[in-house]
Amino acid sequence: MFWRWQTDWATYLLTHHNSHGDGSSNSIPSAALSSLLAPVSSIITTLHRHLLPLIDHVSKNPDIASITLLVIVLLVSLKILNILYRAVVFWISLAFKLVFWATVVVVGLFVWSRGVEGAAADLAVWGRYWVGVWTSEYARFQEQLEDARKYQMQQAQAQQAFAR
To answer: Which chain regions cross the lipid bilayer (predicted)?
Structure first.
């Protein structure tokens, strides 16, 4: 019924667009309107021919309609998830880029204010400090590891003595 109304409307517009009863006419010429509405009418007819059997088949088999609806909902939800993923990736990459360029600016300002030699000297002092911190922490953890190994050996020897 809907498709017939669409076709009738297009036909009515094509044939009666110049007669308003008061003698006035539309500003769109008949040939232009006909050339604009002919492809629309053709598309509607083609859709009617191909979609009507599909709609009839789906309405007779509600299981197919349920599965189709489930697939459509799944695809739409995946598309929304993809959009959210891309938004999160955009903001995270933007944050990393801002941090990188802020670091470049801070280092540049530091070198500019201290000079190249002063910045190199400060970098050497900071490097020696952090190497010292790392070395002392490494030595402390090595001592803890040795203590843990000695304790495990004592426990193993105690269990062997108890088992005899």
So the answer is: 64-85, 91-112
The token duo for 73 is 């909902």
Q: Which residue has the tokens 């006035």?
A: 24
Residue with tokens 């402390």: 140
Question: Helix or strand or coil: residue 40?
Answer: helix
In a domain, 41, yes or no: yes
- Residue at 104 is within a domain: no
Phi then psi for 17, rounded to 5 degrees?
-75, -20
Q: Do the domain assignments include residue 5?
A: yes
Global pTM?
0.45
The count of domains in the chain is 1
Q: Could you tell me the pLDDT band of residue 42, with boundaries at 50, 70 and 90?
A: confident
Nearest to 17 by CA among 9, 4, 3, 45: 9
